[in-house]
TrEMBL record:
This is Fatty acid hydroxylase. GO terms for biological process: lipid biosynthetic process. Keywords: Membrane, Transmembrane, Transmembrane helix. Residues 299-313 have a biased composition (Low complexity). One of its GO terms (cellular component) is membrane. It comes from Mycobacterium adipatum. Residues 123-256 form the Fatty acid hydroxylase domain. InterPro entries: Fatty_acid_hydroxylase, Sterol_Desaturase_Related.
Length: 322
């Protein structure tokens, strides 16, 4: 066998391993490691170390099996997105650290099922948080004041792992509060909350990944990149789909699920058609939602697709996204 053939075979093996092993490694391997660390009562910094491994893995796999190689190239947004990751992960960790204080302030019955196996407690927390986050996410596409802050996330024109945490801190806080508040009210333990925070970070990396991975029929249930790309289509109404963070269960029930296996995505389909010149720097994006220009004229619209091009037309149902 020639050197070229050997290299091609090795490359194919690595790509296949990444294509089919990436998601199990992240969802089962790294989340499982987080569960083991928390259940053993190990220091919380080990969870942060696992998140760092997840981020490094995301970047590596995006190089091995990119969905769109152009999305791997910095567009003067790499530093900005790293700032988002640092700020928003700090907020998430701070919220976990504040749980004992919140639990002391909120006088509510302690209904948390402490007797359940730890892994089942984590899965239950994920399902409850998924519902709250999905509801706020959907509302953010319907209510102007929420959309002002959520629009930051939809300004992206390339799809890669760090996009997941590219959120205005105000919107990040509202989403996480909706997901975690019901859990705190029934006595969410800090260890479970810590793993939940790790799971959120890993899920956002997978959901916005530029990796062309495969998960089979699970793509209809798990909120991963193949379905989430439809959520980032730039036309009003078209992107009002697939709101779930962890699962698509609520989207199926709310009839906001959408998927077309024949569709291919590129940067021309991402962003916001109504605001193609949305600010791109971190500081301007922090300020912009508070300005007059940070809002938009909310006009009820729907969309019709003709030859792959979406166009807005009046919709009497009152659904919109600007």
């Amino acid at each position: 066998m020639s050197t070229t053939s050997t290299t091609s075979l090795a490359t194919g093996v690595v790509q296949a391993a990444a294509r089919y092993g990436y998601v199990p490694f992240m969802l089962i391997g790294l989340n499982g490691a987080g569960i083991a660390v928390a259940a053993a009562g190990a220091p919380k910094f080990w969870l942060l170390a696992i998140l760092v491994i997840a981020i490094a893995t995301a970047f590596l796999v995006e190089q091995i099996i990119p969905y769109d190689p152009q999305w791997n190239h910095d567009r003067a947004d790499g530093t900005r997105d790293r700032i988002y990751v640092a700020v928003n992960e700090t907020l998430i960790l701070a919220s976990v650290a504040a749980i004992p204080l919140l639990a002391a302030i909120v006088l509510a019955p302690q209904l948390w099922p402490h007797s359940w196996p730890f892994v089942v407690q984590v899965l239950a927390a994920i399902l409850v948080a998924d519902f709250g986050i999905t509801v706020v996410h959907l509302a953010s596409h319907k209510i102007g004041v929420l959309w002002r802050f959520h629009a930051v996330h939809h300004s992206i024109t390339r799809f890669y792992g760090l996009n997941g945490l590219m959120k205005h801190p105000v919107h990040q806080t509202v989403e996480m509060a909706a997901g975690v508040a019901p859990l705190i009210l029934i006595g969410l333990p800090v260890d479970v909350a810590s793993v939940l925070a790790l799971a959120v970070g890993i899920q956002l990396l997978l959901q916005h990944s530029n990796a062309d991975y495969r998960v089979g029929p699970a793509k209809y249930v798990l909120a991963l990149n193949e379905g989430h790309r439809f959520h980032h289509l730039k036309w009003a109404g078209v992107g009002d789909v697939n709101f779930g963070l962890f699962t698509l269960i609520w989207d199926h029930l709310l009839r906001t699920y959408s998927y077309d296996p024949a569709r291919r995505f590129d940067s021309n389909q991402l962003g916001m058609a109504a605001k193609p010149d949305y600010p791109s720097s971190y500081l301007r994006q922090m300020i912009y939602p508070f300005t007059r220009g940070g809002g938009c004229t909310l006009t009820p619209t729907t969309t019709a697709a003709t030859n792959g091009t979406e166009t807005a037309t009046p919709d009497p149902s009152g659904k919109y996204r600007c």
